[in-house]
Amino acid sequence: GDSVTQMEGPVTLSEEAFLTINCTYTATGYPSLFWYVQYPGEGLQLLLKATKADDKGSNKGFEATYRKETTSFHLEKGSVQVSDSAVYFCALILTGGGNKLTFGTGTQLKVEL
Amino acid sequence: EAGVAQSPRYKIIEKRQSVAFWCNPISGHATLYWYQQILGQGPKLLIQFQNNGVVDDSQLPKDRFSAERLKGVDSTLKIQPAKLEDSAVYLCASTGVTYEQYFGPGTRLTVT
Questions:
Q1: Nearest CB to B42: which of A98, A99, A103?
Q2: Distance, CA of A54 to chain centre
Q3: Smallest Cα–Cα separation from B108: which of B35, B40, B21, B10?
Q4: What DSSP line would sit under A43-101, residue for residue?
Q5: Which residues contact A43 (CB under 8 A, 6 or more apart)?
Q6: What's the CA gap between B83 and B111, in Å, rounded?
Q7: What tens digit of pLDDT does each residue of A2-58 get?
Q8: CA distance B81 to chain A (A)
Q9: Is A10 in contact with A84 (CB distance < 8 Å)?
Q10: A49: which chain B residues are within 8 Å (Cβ-Cβ)?
Q11: pLDDT of B66-108, one tens digit each?
């Protein structure tokens, strides 16, 4: 079945450090890929998305590129802030799959001063 | 635009008791989803409604979980009787004309 694999956390970084959170997927069709963020005590928010190979999604300094050849969608940010501390979820939707989101297990990011 | 509303935010019950959660989606959103998020895991879809009809309930434990969306607007998810393993955050989401899902803040259920 379809699945998403993320690197385990927690990831702890100092402010202004470079962030990479790895995400790979397995899908029978051609998925759209997403990163969601969950701040403490809040619901999930869509951070960025990409709908086809080589698309780059970007938002709030975060970016991720849809790599079909490596089935990956790694999240990156050049300089993290304390306010970026949250749990990040990679997810996919299959085209024609009824809009069903399949999530990874989430990666907790802690950014320290 | 108001977001997805859920209540209660927190609930503590004993095993074998029943509990109900309520969700009001964004106005005009036809599709509504209930997810279960167990600590340390990603959300798992329990049930998807399109208006007041069920699209996908393949992962809903139907012996104890039920959900309805009678008028195609708000929805209720019920657990009866609850088990310890039902402790989780229950998330509601909705979509309109695009496939972007908007999530509510969730209900954190603790079963003791």
A1: A103
A2: 15
A3: B10
A4: -EEEEEEE-STT-EEEETTEEEE-BTTTTB--EEESS--GGG-EEEEEEEEETTTTT-E
A5: B4, B91, B103, B104, B105, B106
A6: 7
A7: 899 998 889 999 999 999 999 999 998 889 999 999 998 888 999 999 999 999 999
A8: 26
A9: no
A10: 100
A11: 999 988 899 999 999 999 999 999 999 999 887 789 999 999 9
Q: Quote the minimal CA–CA distance from B101 to chain A in Å.
A: 8
Read off the pLDDT of residues A54-112 as tens digits, 9 standing for 90 and up.
999 999 999 999 999 999 999 999 999 999 999 999 999 986 666 788 999 999 999 99
Please state the φ and ψ torsions of residue A84, each to the nearest 5 degrees: -85, -5
How many whole angstroms separate alpha carbon A108 and alpha carbon A89? Answer: 9
